[in-house]
Specification:
Length: 227
């Protein structure tokens, strides 16, 4: 059967990864969470004190980029691929609020973006891929057959992320999460290199009042029209 590329972009916590995982499972496609890659680099940079709330040592980060290797390894028990940085499983470590606070700062660095975009394009060479992020339909795969742009109100999104973090046992307040979601959206849409924008040919989905199943069925119809 004809294989396509599905690019999913949108604001923080719009349920991109939930939808991407559902689609990948239904179609037998590979799912790539590009946010995990930016988070992986951020985690590594934090460990080396190249980034904090008050500073970003851009030159150290750029100098050492070539020594940071990222890869995904499928965990069959969990049913998704986990992120590894230089061989270390960082899947849990990259989902903390501390990483969320710094990741958009690191994602502004053009050299970081160039490295990750190249790796993402390699992963999608054979098509049959669902990739989510902020620049997938605009920069990584401008020729993707199906492009989606996800939105939902900031409050809805913060509530979802808050519930997720609580479930994972992290101690955060709703206000902290809302502030983080709003800050990241601001930086992501205002940065110079590859800002988050809807590609002209992307289909916008506002899922503020849609169930996951309704959204999945809607998008599967779009996919079937492309196959
Ligand atoms: O998707 P997630 O919320 O995990 O992404 C974390 C951050 O990584 C985003 O807020 C954004 O700053 C950055 N990112 C990016 N480009 C992508 C994916 C993520 O700049 N393709």
């Amino acid at each position: 059967m004809n294989k396509i590329t599905i690019a999913i972009d949108g604001y923080s916590s719009t349920g991109k990864s939930t939808l991407a995982k559902q689609l990948a499972a239904a179609l037998g496609y590979v799912y790539v969470d590009t946010g995990a890659m930016y988070r992986g680099i951020t985690y590594f940079a934090m460990q080396h004190d190249w980034v904090s709330e008050s500073h970003l040592n851009k030159s150290e980060l750029i100098t050492h980029l070539q020594n940071i290797s990222l890869h995904f390894k499928f965990n069959s028990a969990l049913g998704f691929a986990e992120m590894y940085v230089n061989g270390e499983n960082v899947e849990k470590a990259i989902r903390t609020i501390e990483v969320s606070r710094l990741v958009s700062k690191v994602a502004e660095v053009s050299e970081v973006r160039a490295k990750l975009v190249e790796q993402q394009q390699q992963m999608g060479k054979e098509k049959g891929i669902v990739m989510d992020g902020r620049d997938i339909g605009t920069v990584v795969f401008p020729d993707a057959e199906l492009k989606l742009f996800m939105t939902a109100s900031a409050k809805t999104r913060a509530q979802r992320r808050f519930d997720e973090l609580l479930e994972k046992g992290q101690r955060v307040t709703f206000e902290e999460v809302l502030q983080n979601v709003e800050e990241r959206d601001y930086i992501d849409t205002h940065r110079e290199d590859s800002p988050l924008v809807k590609a002209d040919d992307a289909i916008e989905i506002d899922n503020s009042v849609m169930t996951k199943q309704e959204q999945f069925e809607l998008v599967m119809k779009m996919v079937n029209e492309k196959l």
